[in-house]
Design brief:
Layout: H1 12-15, H2 21-28, H3 33-65, H4 75-124, H5 127-132, H6 135-148, H7 150-177, H8 179-186, H9 189-224, H10 227-235, H11 239-262, H12 265-291, H13 303-345, E1 368-375, H14 389-392, E2 413-420, E3 425-429, H15 436-442, E4 451-456, E5 459-460, H16 466-472, E6 473-476, H17 487-492, H18 500-509, H19 513-518, H20 536-550, E7 554-558, H21 566-579, E8 584-588, E9 600-605, E10 608-613, H22 615-619, H23 625-636, H24 643-649
Parallel strand pairs: 3-8, 3-9, 6-7, 7-8
Antiparallel strand pairs: 1-2, 1-4, 4-5, 9-10
Helix pairs in contact: 3-4, 3-7, 3-13, 4-6, 4-7, 6-9, 6-13, 7-8, 7-13, 9-11, 9-13, 12-13, 18-20, 20-21
């Protein structure tokens, strides 16, 4: 049983730089600064052209239709003014099309970069991160969170600049026309800005809660609707409970979506109402000015000026509202950016050291040594909405290795020292939970030792490049993973450039070629999700073919023949015998019959090596771990009761 997790907080080292969000978003857009500059030019040009229209309107009234000097309407001037009023929208429309193409290109490209960087970073994370984090939660950040910032990257920046320029141009024009009416229009703006900031902070909190809820829904979907999840639910008749669990999460998501949608609606209703009644107030104030109730500006406030001003006031309303809305959207998106940057700032626990040594694949001898290895599993590093709380509770963050060596269940491996010589077949046996699989995970650096060292050909694996270490070590697990694709693609995953002949030879060596050719589509047969269209033995032999194609110097077999029928086990065992030729092999097996010919057998109990030797040597100690396991297995099958009887009978398990 694992100990209770010791809770610490994520440190600055764990999370990286934690720079402010906005500068980091700006940094993302640096590769596209040329296109962004063109967007800004288009925005300024469009806003400048639009701001000319109200002055053309004033000229239509005061100079063309109703000249202030009382002369007849000037139809020639009117024609030119009308032509200008028609041309400007056409020009701005074409500018808008180009601007939209540029912003869409920049935004979607930046989002693709962000999604790619996040996926690449996740590929670098250690195995412990994925064992502690729900797959659905990871998928949610990669898909939903990145998609949630699409609007900010594609439209928001342009909207802010465009509306800011438009508002600035409109305000300057309004002041030129009548500063008194401008003050009336903007008198409540400070209050609106203050309210908008309050609403924005609430929207940020709601956005984070909504995305965390969406992550939970994605995790439930991924678990319940996978092949394994559906099979499990049907076997135990848990479908109604899974539906209820999903409905509960769905209702919580709905409540948060509604709350987020309604937040700020009252605020915007007040703002829109104010802007709607402002023209009426402007007409009233204009009346006071014109009738002499106020002499300030009476000589400049003409009918054309009033029409132009209300036109500008109408044009000011939408940009201001959009700026307020987009400000809320930005604050909402900042919460999503922070969730994405949380992952990007999380430093992988397994990293390549500067000056790491690259093993020559063809020169690797395959000597494996454990030198005083102590290991304990690190506690998971928690991020909001990602930790698998069903397994780890609500604590959950990284714990640094302690210097002391507490006895008991805290240590998965304790002072393990062993050597596997090049070309040897070494077997590791022991009861469940003794540390067999844990020991094999340290060789390819799925985890790093807490103390001591694991060496390959005399090199500490922590001093080797990750790629050369991965090339040197191959693994066949008890439950091999096949992705949804063809048999050929699944085998070639180990070596994408492999020829058809090499793939087929690997399949022959794995005793699966004839079975593949019996399928109507042969090597183009689709395996289905996780290979569920194939039997357990077929999947196991495909996994062996894949590792044979890789041709590693060191091969790890983790109970590769367990839970197979006799005939399938024979086929798999023959394939494994071919796979172990001329390479170092470390095999974990519960069926001791499969490792009788091993060059050396290590017995593990409670994370310690308690014995080692050959099959015959270990049977000579009837009180030893291996002999006891052997007698127990053999007696369950109805054979001789002692290892001596079994040896005399010369009967194979």
């Amino acid at each position: 049983m694992r100990p209770s997790p010791v809770v610490t907080h994520l440190t600055q080292e764990d999370l990286g730089s934690r720079e402010p969000v906005i500068p980091r978003v700006a940094q993302m857009l640096r590769p596209y600064r040329g296109k962004i500059a063109l967007v800004l030019v288009a925005v300024v040009a469009s806003a400048a052209l639009t701001s000319i229209v109200p002055f053309l309107v004033r000229a239509v009234f005061d100079d063309a239709l109703f000249p202030l000097d009382g002369s007849a309407p000037d139809l020639g001037l009117l024609g030119w003014l009308v032509a200008g009023m028609c041309v400007i929208p056409i020009v701005t429309a074409f500018i808008g099309i180009g601007q939209n193409w540029l912003t869409s290109t920049v935004g979607n490209s930046a989002m693709a970069d962000l999604r790619g960087d996040l996926f690449e970073h996740l590929q670098k994370m250690e195995l412990a991160f994925f064992t502690a984090t729900k797959t659905g939660a990871i998928q949610s950040r990669l898909a939903n969170d990145v998609a949630g910032v699409r609007t900010v990257l594609t439209d928001t920046a342009t909207t802010i600049v465009q509306n800011s320029v438009t508002v600035t141009a409109a305000l300057v024009s309004m002041v030129v026309l009548s500063w008194q009416l401008t003050i009336l229009t903007l008198i409540l703006m400070p209050l609106f800005v203050w309210l908008q900031l309050r609403v924005g902070r609430r929207r940020q909190r709601l956005a984070r809660r909504t995305q965390e809820s969406l992550s939970e829904m994605t995790a439930i979907t991924e678990e319940a609707l996978s092949v394994s999840g559906i099979l499990l639910a049907k076997v135990f008749n848990r479908s109604p409970q899974e539906v209820a669990r999903y409905r509960e999460a769905n209702q919580r998501q709905t409540r948060l979506q509604v709350e987020q949608a309604m937040t700020g609606r009252t605020f915007f209703a007040v703002v829109q109402t104010f802007f709607a009644i402002t023209p009426a107030l402007i007409y009233l104030v204009a009346g006071w000015i014109i009738t002499g109730s106020s002499v300030i500006g009476a000589d400049t406030l003409t009918a054309g000026t009033l029409v132009a001003f209300t036109t500008l006031q109408g044009r000011l309303q939408m940009p201001l509202l959009q700026l307020m809305r987009v400000s809320l959207d930005v604050q909402t998106s900042l919460a999503l950016f922070r969730r994405i940057f949380e992952y990007l700032d999380l430093e992988p626990a397994i990293t390549e050291r500067p000056g790491a040594i690259a093993l020559d694949h063809d020169a690797v001898r395959g000597r494996v040594e454990f030198r005083g290895v102590w290991f304990r599993y690190p506690e998971p590093r928690a991020l909001s909405g990602t930790i698998d709380r069903d397994r780890f509770g609500d604590s959950g963050v990284r714990i640094e290795a302690e210097v002391e060596r507490p006895e008991g269940p805290h240590w998965a491996l304790q002072d393990v020292s062993l050597v596997v010589e090049p070309g040897q077949l070494a077997a590791i046996v022991g009861p469940s939970g003794s540390g067999k699989t844990t020991a094999t995970y340290l060789v390819p650096r799925f985890y790093d030792v807490t103390e001591g060292a694991v060496l390959i050909d005399g090199h500490d694996v922590r001093e080797l490049t990750l790629s050369s270490l991965a090339d040197a070590v191959g693994m066949v697990t008890q439950e091999p993973y096949l992705f949804h694709g063809t048999i050929r693609d699944n085998i070639a995953y180990a070596c994408p450039d492999a020829t058809a002949e090499a793939i087929e030879q690997a399949a022959r060596d794995a005793n699966i070629h004839d079975r593949i050719m019996s399928f109507p589509e042969g090597y183009e047969t689709v395996t289905g999700e996780r290979g569920y269209r194939l039997s357990g033995g077929e999947k196991q032999r495909l996994a062996i073919a894949r590792v044979l194609l890789k041709d590693p110097a060191i091969l790890i077999l983790d109970e590769a023949t367990s839970s197979l029928d006799t005939e399938t086990e024979r086929l798999v065992q023959e394939a494994l015998e071919r796979a172990t030729r001329s390479r170092t092999t470390i095999a974990i097996a519960h069926r001791l019959s499969t490792i009788q010919s091993a060059d050396v057998i290590f017995g593990l109990a409670d994370g310690r090596v308690v014995e080692q030797g050959t099959h015959e040597e270990l049977l000579d100690d009837p009180d030893g771990l291996y002999a006891r396991l052997y007698v127990e297995q053999f007696s369950r099958r109805g054979g001789p009761r002692t290892p001596y009887d079994e040896r005399r009978a010369d009967v194979s398990l």
